[in-house]
Amino acid sequence: MRPTEIFLAHSARDVVFVAGLAERLRADGMLPWYSERHIVGARQWHDEIGQALERCDWFAVVLSPSSVRSEWVRHELLYALGEARYRRRIVPILYRACQVTRLSWTLPSFQYIDFTKGFDPGYAALLRVWARASASTSARPYRSRSR
Q: Which of 6, 33, 68, 94 could form a disulfide with 102 if both were Cys (CB 3.0 to 4.6 A apart)?
């Protein structure tokens, strides 16, 4: 199923990449949510993040050396992994090479969307995930076949 709203979990250090990704997603008719854009000053940011996690129907985690060290990215990912509605709707986005098991031992079982070779090829691969999910009635997970 094509996403209605996509939660973009990321490190604040990767916000330039995330903002560019969100802009492209919006241009293609999708609604991305990420903290730097959607949290207004003086609001309870942890509540805003929680509400977005409850509302979004897809979860994408931007993987980088900064994000795998982020406690907040870890909390967000653990929430998504524990939510039945995110089952088969978690998309790891490899922005920069990193040790993904530092964030979660489960991530190597997912097929990453690789942006390390360029934004355009990575973005095309990301759109294919949702095109396949739309074509499938069960929105199957995209897991590595090597495991």
A: 68
Mean pLDDT, range 85-107, rounded to an integer: 93
Which helix (H) or strand (E) covers residue 72, if one does?
helix 71-82
Identify whether the C-beta of residue 104 lies closer than 8 Å to the C-beta of residue 74: yes
Structure tokens at 14: 């990767």
Name every residue whose Cβ is closer than 8 Å to that of residue 90 and which is 6 or more positions away in sequence: 58, 59, 60, 61, 77, 80, 81, 110, 141
How is the chain split into domains, by residue range?
5-135
pTM for the model: 0.82
- Among residues 37, 85, 92, the alpha carbon closest in space to that of 64 is found at 92
| Assigned superfamily of 5-135 | Toll/interleukin-1 receptor homology (TIR) domain (3.40.50.10140)
